Amino acid sequence: MSELRIEHLTSPGIAEAMARGMRTAILPLGATEQHGAHLPLSVGSDHADRLGVLVAERLGDALVLPTVRIGTGARLGRCGRPRRDPRAPSSPGRAVPG
Question: Which of 4, 12, 51, 54 is the most exposed place for a label (fewest CB within 10 A)?
């Protein structure tokens, strides 16, 4: 199977892949944040997209779910930086609207 990303497959294509033994789903997680003025905000998510496909290829029985893109808040004028909820120091991944 050449395409492993389910977002590029049809429903019948996914069913066919599962019938052929695809039983694992890879869920890539990537940041949407500033990496400097010379790079797009999607660098972290782009890397997660590619890594998900590489892992699925290596496993041989996996499909790749759409990448969850984390961190779309703005803070201190720097677009795309996630912001932590200061009331929840034990959950660093929790973003708050901002």
Answer: 12
Query: In sequence order, what are the beta bridge partners of 78?
Result: 75
Q: Which of 79, 77, 85, 94 is nearest to 32 (CA)?
A: 79
The widest CA-to-CA distance across the chain, in whole angstroms, is: 50
| pTM for this model (two decimals) | 0.69
DSSP structure class, residue 90:
T
Report residue 53 as tokens. 């496909």
Residue 70's beta-bridge partner residues?
31
Tell me how far apart the alpha carbons of residues 89 and 68 are, in angstroms, rounded to a whole number.
Answer: 23
Q: For residue 92, what is the DSSP state?
A: T
* Separation between Cα atoms, residue 47 and residue 53, nearest integer Å: 10
Write out pLDDT tens, residues 41-76. 889 999 999 999 999 999 999 999 999 998 855 544
